[in-house]
UniProtKB/TrEMBL annotation:
This is Uncharacterized protein. It comes from Liquorilactobacillus uvarum DSM 19971.
Length: 97
């Protein structure tokens, strides 16, 4: 899942860590991909389900940069990549506090 996004992060030397979360109450599965240059303080949250044929259907992709309160939401990976390519300087450097 998110193969193009992972390739994009690797090409720009951005570290990432992935994990699956299975909530008990909702039928959707959640996939979390944390990323950043040195600290993994940005994340993608992908809500997906499986079709009756077993294929993955992405319902929503949320992008939270540096702990944003309201995430940006994308319906598919293509729009997410388009946004990332336009704003690479924003998430390519870490915030020093």
């Amino acid at each position: 899942m998110l193969r193009k996004t992972k390739n994009f992060l690797q090409a720009n030397n951005i570290n990432y860590k992935k994990e699956h979360v299975n909530p008990l109450i909702v039928p959707e599965k959640v996939y979390v991909l944390k990323f950043g240059k040195t600290t993994l303080n940005n994340r993608f949250i992908v809500e997906h389900t499986y079709t009756w044929t077993g294929r993955i259907k992405i319902n929503k992709i949320s992008l939270r940069l540096h702990g944003q309160k309201s995430p940006r939401e994308f319906p598919n990976e293509t729009e997410l990549l388009h946004y990332l390519k336009r704003n690479i300087k924003r998430y390519n450097t870490d915030v020093k506090e």
